[in-house]
Amino acid sequence: MLRRMNEALPGLVATIIGYGLVLQFAGMWFVDDKLSYSIGLWYGIAIAAGLAVNIAAVLWDAVSMGESKNANRRIIAKSVLRYVVVAVLLIILGYFKFGNLFAAFLGILGLKISAYLSPVIGSLAGRLSGRGDAASNEE
Q1: Residues 82 and 108 sit within 8 Å (Cβ to Cβ)
Q2: How far apart are CA 89 and CA 119, in angstroms?
Q3: What is the DSSP code (8-state) at residue 52?
Q4: Considering the entire predicted model, what is its pTM?
Q5: Is there a contact between 78 and 70 (Cβ–Cβ < 8 Å)?
Q6: Residue 99: how many CB atoms within 10 A of its CB?
Q7: How far is Cα 11 from Cα 137, in angstroms, rounded to an integer?
Q8: CA separation (Å) from 97 to 35, 45, 51, 104, 107?
Q9: What pLDDT, on a 0 to 100 scale, did the predictor assign at position 53?
Q10: What are phi and psi of 126, to 5 degrees?
């Protein structure tokens, strides 16, 4: 289903989850309240994955709407709504002290980190599988 919206989306979500696993195992050494850290981190990872899917859906809408009158307004409204939802979810997490707010923020940063790492990981996976693209074979 994710691949129908955007070809890169499944890899992006997988990289977000991989980033979460790295932070989970690395961060457990440095925190006292491991449960709160884990809850906050995976709360943030879930938000990051949801953001990735939402961004792909907004891009899909932008392409399918073309040059209609309300296309620009609708895309901007969805983007603003996305950030409002993230702010509300972080406020809820902080207010109820359900998990570590800093770990949740690190989890949300997984979207950015994964966006930068996805091409590198895809290239490495292609080279390891022997697939390689034309550009890497010419070097």
Answers
A1: no
A2: 29
A3: H
A4: 0.82
A5: no
A6: 22
A7: 23
A8: 12, 17, 22, 12, 16
A9: 92
A10: -65, -40
